[in-house]
Prior knowledge:
Blueprint: E1 32-34, E2 71-73, E3 94-97, E4 106-109, H1 118-132, H2 136-149, H3 154-166, H4 170-189, H5 202-214, H6 219-233, H7 238-250, H8 254-267, H9 275-285, H10 289-302, H11 307-319, H12 323-331, H13 335-338, H14 344-350, H15 355-367
Antiparallel strand pairs: 1-2, 3-4
Helix pairs in contact: 1-2, 2-3, 3-4, 4-5, 5-6, 5-7, 6-7, 7-8, 7-9, 8-9, 9-10, 10-11, 11-12, 11-15
Amino acid sequence: MGATSPSSTRNLVAVLIALALPTSAFGFTPPLQSHTVVSSDLISLGNNMAGLKAVNTKHTINDVGDDEGVNTINNNSSSSRRKFMSSVALSSLAILPTPSFADEATISTPPVQVVLTGDAKKLFNEGRALEAQGNILAAQRLYTKVTKISPTFIYGWSSLGNTLVAQGELNPAEETYTKAINLCEESLKGGDSFGTKRCDDLYLLLLNRGSVRLNNGMTKEALVDLQKSDTLRARPDAIILQNLARAQEVNAQFYQSDRSYDTAISMTANEVNPFWLRSSMVKYQLDNVTGAMDLMRRVENRFPEAPEVRAAYAVLLLGRGDEDAARKKFLEIPDRQRKKYADRDYLDKVISWPPKMKDGVGYLSKAVGDSE
């Protein structure tokens, strides 16, 4: 049986989960890509699950795929999918000398696999088919078998990571992505040799792990991954930039975040996305009230009933000096949902608003009697 060719694309499923991650209740989340990883966009409107699938819960889960590829998380709409082509190959065998006190034999490290053959290839393709059908648990079982049969196969680990993300198991997903990244980096150490394919989608793997880390409280580590992903990509990528901007934002790098959001928006200007809300709040943090309000109006026009949009819009109205309009907008939020904005833990750990936004909504919560 011949080696699997990486020329075919595969749908990738990435589910972003805004659990411990300081994401917006509106829907920011990281993206997951097959052969790749998630980006940190929106969580979905009114949803606690953000997508790593591609963490692409911007509203939804994003899929990216390849023959032997990894899934990536994307933050767009839950129905959005990314296609991704990847090349797979076998890297050279590394031979390590045994310690001087051991036998004279040498210990060999199995070669990194970018292409599968035989039974492992069959199992992997069956897993991909099940994943494409939405049968995540069955796909996970097969990917687990693949990692046992071929533990140095990069995309067995990355695909397993995608299924774990889809179920909200972010800690084990982060570990499996790390294994895929380590194998990919090991593959690249051999340099270019004729006839040998190397892992060529490290930027996607870093995107997925960065997105998972962004949604799992590892904000500094997420920033490092996403910066590396952006550098390796070597050209603007909307999904990477959305997640990078979010990572910069939660690490209080507001000027850098503003630039990244602006570039991502310029690449998606024909469709208002939930991450535009985050961009608006960053602009407000930087005292660009006019720019913040321009974006907020478009977001509010697209998502007029989303509680987080109403709350954020109310804060901007307050910042513009129109307290009556701000209170009125804030009171449009149903009582039970509105009272969440009086909870500092909710502001810090669930939606993770910038400082000025938290101050403004704190003032409004007191003004309408939701807090003392």
